[in-house]
Task: inverse folding
DNA sequence: TACTGATAGTCAGCATACTGAGCAATATCC
DNA sequence: GGATATTGCTCAGTATGCTGACTATCAGTA
């Protein structure tokens, strides 16, 4: 019988599990309390000032019902702001705060360190291969989840 | 600046996200309501009759606080049973039911189909490479999460 | 302009995952 | 044998991530 540990789905779960643990440990050691999900959202808000929640969700492949809570927590920590949009009264425009910018800058080393640690069992070439293969598999499966990656609108 | 989508942690999250969606879709289409996590637990109970919860958790790298709820749901669906252990009154022995065995047998094609679909963007060799690299990275990071993989005790 | 459909966001509910705490039972050490 | 440490399990609390439903708003069209 095929072992669970030989199924790609199970490997995906374990790699993600380790990745999250490593991220939280590194960022925590650096003195910050930010999850991988919150980090990605904050970095994307910084890179796309004034974007709305649906666009943000698309850029990082989060479900729109998940992004609500993530932003709630970023706002509550004073790292981001949520404003009503002037062009579309349904939408909320997101901005990073100065505090958010400071936090992003300070945790960057920890985040980069975490990415290295998750690949520490692999050579540089193997790490690149893994990234490339994950990219390729993800691109092919992008539309299969409820929260696919979406390019920003022009 | 490095894009989120080039970080291994983010790729891990996306691959897992797609893997879960594909699994639920395939198994759901086959007429069953079982999550990837519940499937792995049930298959492992079947392969190791009478094991206790901590051992089960170790075999599939789940946290011990997570396994409680997973087993609750398997028991509630009539797929597994939880009995007091005779040797250790703290422990619970787990058994698969006939219904659980039937379910496992019937959903196997859907589970296998799901594993193929998650790799559909890759050639056979690329799929093998991805599995091998994930294995290697996971082995090196095993102890970094709160729920590492553990071999069964002799 | 009124109708229709689509879109932005939220909410309730459920299932992972984890932290940290606690209880009961077992194992170990003196 | 009794104190101590460890182990198996559970629980409360928090954070993703999803389904499905709902409101408010917008866009397109008859």
Result:
């Amino acid at each position: 019988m095929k072992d669970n540990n030989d199924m790609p789905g199970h490997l995906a779960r374990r790699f993600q599990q380790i990745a999250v643990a490593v991220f939280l440990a590194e960022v925590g050691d650096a003195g910050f309390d930010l999850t991988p999900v919150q980090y990605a959202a904050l970095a994307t808000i910084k890179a796309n000032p004034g974007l709305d929640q649906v666009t943000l969700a698309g850029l990082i492949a989060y479900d729109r019902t998940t992004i609500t809570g993530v932003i709630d927590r970023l706002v509550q920590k004073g790292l981001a702001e949520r404003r009503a949009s002037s062009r579309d009264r349904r939408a909320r425009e997101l901005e990073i705060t100065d505090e958010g910018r400071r936090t992003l800058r300070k945790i960057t080393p920890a985040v980069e360190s975490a990415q290295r640690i998750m690949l520490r069992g692999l050579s540089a070439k193997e790490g690149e291969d893994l990234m490339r293969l994950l990219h390729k598999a993800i691109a092919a499966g992008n539309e299969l989840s409820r929260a696919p990656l979406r390019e920003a609108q022009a």
